[in-house]
Amino acid sequence: MPQPPTAPAVGAVPRQAGAHPPVPFFTQARLFEELWPQIERRAVEVLDDGKFSHGRQVAELERALAEYTGARHVIGVNSGTDALVLLLRAAGLRPGDEVVVPAFSFAASATSVVLAGGRPVFADIDPEDYGLDPAAAQRVLTERTRFVMPVHLFHRTADLAGIGALAERHGLTVVEDSAEAIGMRVGGRHAGLFGAGGVLSFFPTKTLGAIGDAGAVLTDDDAIAEQVDALRHHGRLGRTIGDFRTINTTTSLPGYNSKMDDLQAAVLLAKLTRLDADIARRAELAAAYDERLADVPGVLRRPPVGGIEGQVFYVYLIETERRDELAAHLAGHGVETEVYYPTTLPQQPCFAELGHRPGEFPQAEAACRRTLALPLYPELTERQLDVVCDLIRAFHREGP
């Protein structure tokens, strides 16, 4: 059976000799072994069908995700980034329109705005949820602001009530970067469905991950769904299934080649049967981390576990002033970690022309300096988790 890829990790240095095996930041080898009969059957169906993208498996996945999320429409595309670009265009972004984006996020949250023809305007984050701070967003609004993009990171949604109120006061369109938010619900509504629409990413490390790139747009708006459907397929409507003559060859608008591969959809359909169980396991592991790290003085912040509506742990993130030293210490003992994110978006070279300076986004800059993601995935064992926590405790006990 082919081995699935693993995510790149921070601190790839030779491991010191020890009594424990390495702890990868991410793996899904055992999960693939368990699901392989389903994946193999679906993969053979794709090969027999001879339609490798935008076909039957993708259509089935769209229906299954619509049922899971409650979205009126789910449109499969080739990445979470493309999902954002297409959603912004379909929601009416015009050249030069400003979109308020949090200063702390993955680059795609802001580059998607540029690719769709808009201009990102950055605002600071709420240090509790790492999401866009509505008060900070209020301060950067101008007469050109048309959109606001909350990003749901790590284990909870951004302040959707506050951002929704801001949007209503100023006539803004809400587009959610809900790439990490599969399974997160507030008031019974799935993340991505509080405004014009949202997106999902199925990058392999995500809570629901493929074996390559794939994504989806979620929306309850019929017109937006129709636009995204056309944009992903060169501006055409419809899909090719079996009879190639059924395709609509009329190009209604300039579009993209952003169709989802059916082999990715086949993997996702198999893994979707395990999603709720995987989410529950992630919650158990987060609770175990919380208990074991509760009295470690050098760990300045841990995510609250429980008591937060719609909480789903994609990442378990801690904060420490000695983040880089701790990452190196863990790597030296075979434990892989990740930094989300080492640089604020306004300080990325691609946004240098916007002229931002250090100190403008203090909460985002503190998060970039102090946050470290620990291994968290359903296959992580209690023993491996103990190893991680023991090493963190020892590092802070030994001092600088």
UniProtKB/TrEMBL annotation:
The keyword NAD does not apply. The active site is at residue 206. Transmembrane segments: none annotated. The modification N6-(pyridoxal phosphate)lysine is found at residue 206. It holds the Pfam family DegT_DnrJ_EryC1. Signal peptide: none annotated. CDD domains: AHBA_syn. It comes from the Bacteria. Keywords: Pyridoxal phosphate. One of its GO terms (molecular function) is pyridoxal phosphate binding. GO terms for biological process: polysaccharide biosynthetic process. Gene3D superfamilies: Aspartate Aminotransferase, domain 1 (3.90.1150.10), Type I PLP-dependent aspartate aminotransferase-like (Major domain) (3.40.640.10). Belongs to the DegT/DnrJ/EryC1 family. This is dTDP-4-amino-4,6-dideoxygalactose transaminase.
